[in-house]
């Protein structure tokens, strides 16, 4: 906890947030989450049972709130109204839990965010007492507006959800990071460990992922790789990389004082 991630006033030792969908069973979900070292676990309320289906297996049996911070999300919502209703249900199911992830989608094929509906939902939820982490386009203006509405973190996509295409527009991410006063976390598009490391080297405060781990041939091993990548990327950012030098080279060893 020498370099904690602070969200809504709470400190977390891990800067990797992971989802809980697409695994073959709850046992694999638990194993991957443990290997990732993640403390914040996002759950799609419209797709995963956390108590809304009595008598059915609940994810909270294997990932209990006493051990992890559960981050309910609105995956599958296409209107502000649906997103707000979903998160109010989640708050009831989780005994007043107020840290949530908002996403309002605009297209069923590319899952790109609908920013007007996202802004509308964010304003309602913040006024309703929620601490809102929000999935958004990699648009610096929209990200700033979400921050100004009171969102506790902005989460621009690196590329399309589940695409594994990595960070397609690092320049926009830097613009968002440089102008933000709340944590900026890459959400969507990470495919492998190097993508996570690059996000952290750019200055992101954290990375959220699901498909990159759950869709790997060995999800538990990939989860461990992502943990290391996020940590290495953060350390490289804090260390400050050497400046780039175009059209010139500098020897690693000095040329002065050579023997002979």
TrEMBL record:
EC number assigned by the record: 2.8.1.10
Protein keywords: Cytoplasm, Schiff base, Thiamine biosynthesis, Transferase
GO MF term list: thiazole synthase activity
GO biological process: thiamine diphosphate biosynthetic process
UniProt GO cellular component terms: cytoplasm
Subcellular location, record wording: Cytoplasm
Residue numbers annotated as active site: 101 (schiff-base intermediate with dxp)
InterPro entries for this protein: Aldolase_TIM, Thiazole_synthase_ThiG, ThiG
Domain Thiazole synthase ThiG: 7-254
Annotated catalysed reactions: [ThiS sulfur-carrier protein]-C-terminal-Gly-aminoethanethioate + 2-iminoacetate + 1-deoxy-D-xylulose 5-phosphate = [ThiS sulfur-carrier protein]-C-terminal Gly-Gly + 2-[(2R,5Z)-2-carboxy-4-methylthiazol-5(2H)-ylidene]ethyl phosphate + 2 H2O + H(+)
Pathway assignment: Cofactor biosynthesis; thiamine diphosphate biosynthesis
Enzyme class, broadest EC rank: transferase
Binding site for 1-deoxy-D-xylulose 5-phosphate: 162, 188-189, 210-211
UniProt-listed Pfam families: ThiG
Assembly and oligomerization: Homotetramer. Forms heterodimers with either ThiH or ThiS.
Biological role stated in the UniProt entry: Catalyzes the rearrangement of 1-deoxy-D-xylulose 5-phosphate (DXP) to produce the thiazole phosphate moiety of thiamine. Sulfur is provided by the thiocarboxylate moiety of the carrier protein ThiS. In vitro, sulfur can be provided by H(2)S.
Entry's family note: Belongs to the ThiG family.
Protein name: Thiazole synthase
The species this protein was found in: Candidatus Methylophosphatis roskildensis
Gene name of this polypeptide: thiG
């Amino acid at each position: 906890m020498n370099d904690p991630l602070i969200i809504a006033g709470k400190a977390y030792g891990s800067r990797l947030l992971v989802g809980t969908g697409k695994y073959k069973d709850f046992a694999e979900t638990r194993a991957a989450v443990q290997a990732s070292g993640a403390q914040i676990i996002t759950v799609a309320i419209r797709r995963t049972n956390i108590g809304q289906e009595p008598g059915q297996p609940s994810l909270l049996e294997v990932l209990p709130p006493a051990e992890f911070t559960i981050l309910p999300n609105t995956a599958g919502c296409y209107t502000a109204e649906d997103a707000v209703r979903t998160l109010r249900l989640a708050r009831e199911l989780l005994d007043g839990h107020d840290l949530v992830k908002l996403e309002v989608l605009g297209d069923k094929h590319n899952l790109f965010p609908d920013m007007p509906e996202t802004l509308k939902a964010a304003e309602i939820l913040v006024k309703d007492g929620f601490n809102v982490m929000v999935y958004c386009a990699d648009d610096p203006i929209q990200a700033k507006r979400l921050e100004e509405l009171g969102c506790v973190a902005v989460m621009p996509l690196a590329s399309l959800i589940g695409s594994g295409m990595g960070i397609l527009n690092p320049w926009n991410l830097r613009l968002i990071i440089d102008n933000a006063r709340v944590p900026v976390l890459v959400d969507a598009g990470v495919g492998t460990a190097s993508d996570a490391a690059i996000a952290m080297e750019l200055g992101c405060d954290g990375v959220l992922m699901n498909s990159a781990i759950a869709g790997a041939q060995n999800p538990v091993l990939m989860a461990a790789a992502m943990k290391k990548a996020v940590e290495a990327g953060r350390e490289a950012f804090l260390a400050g990389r050497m400046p780039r030098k175009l059209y010139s080279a500098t020897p690693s060893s000095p040329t002065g004082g050579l023997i002979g």
